[in-house]
Write a structure and sequence with these properties.
The protein is built from seven helices and nine strands; from the N terminus they run E-H-E-E-E-H-E-E-H-E-H-E-H-H-E-H. Keywords: ATP-binding, Kinase, Nucleotide-binding, Transferase.
Length: 190
């Protein structure tokens, strides 16, 4: 019997809306060798855009849950989110797998994935407000609600958390993430 392959860490990127999670993840993917990204499944219409995700209806989501197709799922902001079980395949061939997670799903993710590193992305309130207003997806009241939630703390009990300030140049945030992740990443595998 051959030894079980070591799985790459799951790198959960969390932070408030407008903090630049997707930009940070995309930049990390181009800069860190072997890093891969797991797309989320979301009950959001495909034309709403934002991140790259798999859009499903609530009925489809419930069916996928019943089929045990998800490694992790949660509800936030009136939508359902999930990480497909295919993340385990990625973890066998990647140096690390980056995924956009919700703060409320982190403790469960730590249990499910065992090696979970949380990149807690922050930005100043002024930067967040400017980014939310610039993207134009939320009305003024929703922008205010999102800004009020921005300082929600991470849950107690997380083992590996790295703070990333993304208020300035993206390259600086990527460099901070890369330096923090390097000791955790697996060698590139075919």
């Amino acid at each position: 019997m051959s030894p079980r392959p070591v799985k790459a860490p799951v790198i959960a990127v969390v932070g408030p809306s407008g903090v630049g999670k997707d930009s940070l993840m995309d930049a990390m993917l181009t800069r860190i060798p072997g890093l891969k990204k797991q797309r989320r499944v979301i009950t959001r219409a495909p034309e709403l855009g934002g991140e790259d995700y798999v859009a499903v209806s609530e009925t489809q989501f419930a069916d996928l849950c019943a089929e045990r197709s998800f490694a992790l799922h949660w509800q936030a902001h009136g939508l359902y989110y999930a990480i497909p079980r295919e993340i385990d395949v990625l973890r066998r061939s990647a140096s690390g797998v980056v995924v956009n997670l919700s703060r409320k799903a982190l403790l469960e993710a730590q249990d499910v994935f065992s090696t979970l590193i949380v990149l807690s992305v922050t930005a100043t309130p002024e930067v967040l407000a400017a980014r939310l207003n610039a993207r134009g997806r939320e009305d003024r009241a929703e922008v205010e609600r999102r800004l009020a939630r921005a300082s929600t703390p991470l849950p107690e009990g997380l083992l590996h958390v790295v703070e990333i300030d993304n208020s300035g140049p993206l390259d600086a945030a990527v460099a901070t993430a890369e330096a923090a992740l390097t000791p955790w990443l697996q060698p590139e595998r075919a």
